Amino acid sequence: MAEIERLTITLPAAMAAAVKGAVEGGDYASNSEVVREALRDWTLKRAQQRHELAALQADLEQGLADVAAGRVADFDAARIIDQGKARFAARSRSV
Question: What torsion, rounded to 10 degrees, do the Cα atoms 17, 33, 40, 4 define?
Fold first, then answer.
C-alpha cells in the first residue's frame, strides 16, 4: 500500500457540508475518500489543462513561424467563421 500522510485541512462550511453529505449519503465511506476522489479529478483536470496549453503554445509558435516565412493570407472573417462551423459540426458528429 502507498505511504499515507495525514493532513489537516480547513474548508468553508458549504464544502465541509458537501463532504459530510457525500459520506452520510453512502457515496463514500469516509471524508478522506471524498477528498482523495476530488484530488484525483483535480489532477486529471490539471493534466488536461497543461496538455491543452502546450497544444495552444505549439499552434502559436507555428503561426508565428508561418508569418515570419511569409505564409499568410488576407484576413477573411466569413471564411474563418465557416471553417469554424464546419470543424464544430464535424466534432459534434464524431462524439
Answer: 130
